[in-house]
Amino acid sequence: MKINLLDLGWNDQLQESFDSLESSNLVPARIARENRGEYIAYCQFGEIRLKLPGSYLAYKNRDQQYPIIGDWVAVEPGIIRTILPRRGVFQREEAGKRSKTQKIAAHIDYAFLITGLDDDFSAKRIERYLALAGGSSIDPVIILNKADLCQSIQDRLKALSPIARDVPIHAISALEQKGLQELSPYFERGKTIALLGSSGTGKSTLINTLLGYEQLKTGAVRQADSKGRHTTTWREMVLMPQGSVILDTPGMREIQLMGNDEGVRSSFQDIEMLAKQCRFRNCTHSSEPGCAIIKAIEEGKLDPERFNSFLKLKRENKGKRKRSKIVDTEMDKVLKKRKREFMKTVSVSKRKAEKQRRKLSRSQDEDFGYKY
Ligand SMILES: Nc1nc2c(ncn2[C@@H]2O[C@H](COP(=O)(O)OP(=O)(O)OP(=O)(O)O)[C@@H](O)[C@H]2O)c(=O)[nH]1
Ligand SMILES: [Mg+2]
Ligand SMILES: [Zn+2]
Fold this sequence. Notes:
- The structure is a single chain.
- This protein is α/β, with parallel strands linked by helices.
- The protein folds into four domains: 12-83, CATH 2.40.50.140; 90-248, P-loop containing nucleotide triphosphate hydrolases (Rossmann fold), CATH 3.40.50.300; 262-319, Probable gtpase engc, domain 3 (Ribonucleotide Reductase Protein R1, domain 1), CATH 1.10.40; 322-367.
- The protein contains nine helices and 13 strands.
- It has helices at 12-19, 54-58, 123-133, 153-164, 203-211, 262-267, 269-276, 292-298, 304-367, and strands at residues 27-35, 38-43, 46-50, 72-76, 79-83, 90-93, 101-105, 110-116, 139-145, 169-171, 192-197, 236-240, 244-248.
- It has a six-stranded mixed sheet, with helices on both faces. Strands 3-2-1-4-5 form a five-stranded antiparallel sheet, with no helix packed on it. A two-stranded antiparallel ribbon has the order 6-7.
- Strand 8 (110-116), helix 3 and strand 9 (139-145) form a beta-alpha-beta unit.
- Bound molecules: guanosine-5'-triphosphate, magnesium ion (MG) and zinc ion (ZN).
- Magnesium ion is lined by residues 203-204, 231-232, 248.
């Protein structure tokens, strides 16, 4: 199957980066899936399988970039030679105690943040998604799926509007194929859309419906709480017939913020704007005179709940930064201790060697009849 690179998202900028490699042996390809060290990618000749060269792995270091889904790479037959400069990278904080960002996908234009309109619905979660997606070049889009199961869509839209601000919201039913027409502008040729959300919200179902056939496995949610069972277990890029690319991802168990305030700031611009109008620059918005936030809350212009979420997310970020510093200093301590121990063993073995050498030369001297 021949593929037009423009359908895959190829553009002038990528072409320029590719040309600057000045190698006639290379072709561009886009990573669609990773499977135990093997990459499945699309290029002009269709689907191909790729590996990293041994040298890539030999020089493994912390800064070494590994290809991620959505990456554009320059390849020789079977081998990835280099990753072209990334943009639109979706990343998140890895679940667990250690602060570490995990790059999820590259060259993403839109992030569909999918929530079910069943018992899964949570405005707070959407607020978190937005804070996570904010501050990057990816445009977030809120998708409320399973509209067929909800009697109070208008109420929920109303609850979301101060949170979403200018982020578009679409209520759809992937299963009953309702509201899908609204999504077609995002599927413009060459655009890449990543589907994100917790398990069971219908990400894979939406792709199947848009494709018109069952390409991806889907799984029923638990009756009791509408939670999914983590049916999708890997990230996978699917080519859409209209010349766009869609990325299915496994349901996220936990969303953690990245420890930088940029996302929070960009998704809470209303509060940021108000804070600028406070009389004191270091206003804590708790009891200061001339506080624009307190005033807005009193006048009913700002929902106190929203302000609480803002404070909570900021606090969480601060905690994260602190934690990562603690991890760093703890790491330093461990490394220093290891170094000391290493130096000790070195000096011990050096001393031993020296002793041995002296002993040897003494015995050699003895052999020659000399005595100390
Ligand atoms: N009623 C209704 N059910 C839906 C809709 N969309 C998806 N479902 C059902 O929700 C369940 C979960 O759908 P999936 O597509 O597997 O969900 P997912 O988001 O891919 O889940 P993970 O792969 O586990 O992350 C399936 O039983 C779907 O049939 C919808 O619009 N309405
Ligand atoms: Mg799925
Ligand atoms: Zn204030």
